[in-house]
Design a protein that fits this description.
Helix 5 (155-166) packs across helix 8 and helix 6 runs parallel beside helix 7. This protein starts with 5 loop residues before the first strand and ends in a 14-residue tail after the last helix. The strands form three sheets. The protein has a six-stranded parallel beta sheet. Strands 11-10-9-12-13 form a five-stranded parallel beta sheet, with helices on both faces. It has a two-stranded antiparallel ribbon with strand order 3-4. Helix 9 links the parallel strand 12 and strand 13. The protein has eleven helices and 13 strands. The chain is an alpha/beta fold and 335 residues long. It folds into two domains: 6-150 and 313-321, Rossmann fold (3-Layer(aba) Sandwich); 155-309, Rossmann fold, CATH 3.40.50.2000.
């Protein structure tokens, strides 16, 4: 990437998507500016699939890109040549940004890269797709397969997280075991009976360890009450306190138990720290993507093992695919 390169990160407002786009931009070595974007309606999103197949990149389907429309009009009225500053790339994560990334990239003469698998869209017209292996992505030159979600955190983030945690917890950390409890979704369940069995197993297997736990905003109230009743060295019950101890757990724990539906937390635990990661299997039967995700991580030694995800080769390939064109233009205020 050139020193003048910049990234426009389109965000649909979902933190998990936005963080993966940020991680992609940082992996490319680019500064970035967030631009919120959304379809004007579900009908406009439906049209985007048809338009994309026809090669039509209609910015008017979207809200949030008005700044680029206004700049285009202003330059046309002045008869000015477009900005000569090179190096724009456009990045998006999730179905709310895939078409927008293509449409804006065409307008700016920029490269377009997305995270997650843009099923239903023309894959060949993305410059780079970082696709999770659990989506069984097509084997194409512009598809870079990755084993886990991207995580935007860095060393400074974890240092800050550990420091904040130690202001609350003053116990030993040399034998810390962390438990991260999520909640049910369409592919998983979470009952008091299941959680009690798992917690009993964890306490029996880690006698003498400093057992620490956090629940989440998705954890059912009755499960939270059960978790609260156990003799933890440290506990964070989300309904009572929204502090986030997970960065400290990731950095300090020798072992991390994570409920299997928590793909973001599993990805983080399998990427950072030194902990052995154990997935607590609350998944429903069937060959769904959550099951494929956990099984792929287990097969590669990231789950039920201490191997950490290293995406250096994948990012190197992505940098080649996303090398900005010389005539890309950056139309962002303050750039």
């Amino acid at each position: 990437m050139t020193n003048s390169a910049k990234a426009i990160v389109l965000t649909d407002g979902k933190a998990g998507h936005e963080n993966q786009s940020k991680a992609f931009a940082r992996a490319l070595g680019l500064d970035f500016q967030l631009v919120p974007v959304k379809f004007k309606s579900p009908f406009h999103k439906m049209l985007s699939y048809l338009f994309d197949r026809l090669g039509i990149r209609a910015v008017w389907l979207l809200q949030g890109l008005e700044v680029f429309n206004a700049e285009t009009q202003r330059r046309r009225e002045k008869g000015a040549r477009e900005s000569s500053q090179p190096g724009t790339v456009v990045i998006g994560t999730g179905s709310g940004t895939f078409y927008a990334a293509k449409a804006l990239a065409r307008r700016l003469g920029a490269k377009c890269g997305v995270v997650l698998y843009p099923r239903g869209y023309d894959l060949s017209s993305f410059d780079c797709i970082l696709a999770p292996s659990f989506d069984n992505p097509a084997k194409l030159p512009n598809v870079v397969e990755i084993p886990a979600n991207l995580v935007a955190n860095d060393a400074a983030f974890y240092e800050k997280g550990v420091a904040a945690f130690k202001e609350r917890y003053h116990g030993a950390t040399d034998n810390l075991v962390g438990v991260i409890v999520g909640g049910p979704n369409k592919c998983s369940t979470m009952t008091v009976e299941w959680m009690k069995a798992r917690l009993d197993e964890i306490f029996a297997a880690n006698n003498g360890a400093s057992l620490c736990v956090t629940t989440s905003r998705r954890t059912p109230a009755d499960v939270e009450a059960l978790v609260d009743s156990y003799p933890w060295a440290y506990k964070l019950i989300y309904s009572k306190d929204h502090f986030n101890p997970i960065p400290a757990f990731v950095q300090l724990a020798k072992k991390l138990y994570v409920t299997a539906e928590s793909t973001g937390m599993l990805s983080e635990a399998c990427t950072f720290g030194k902990a052995e990661v154990v997935a607590l299997d609350n998944l429903k039967p069937g060959p769904h993507k959550f099951r494929r995700f956990v099984e792929n991580l287990r097969r590669e030694g990231y789950v039920d093992g201490c191997r950490k995800v290293d995406l250096s080769a994948e990012f190197a390939r992505a940098r080649v695919l996303m090398e900005p064109t010389a005539d890309a233009h950056l139309w962002l205020s303050g750039a």
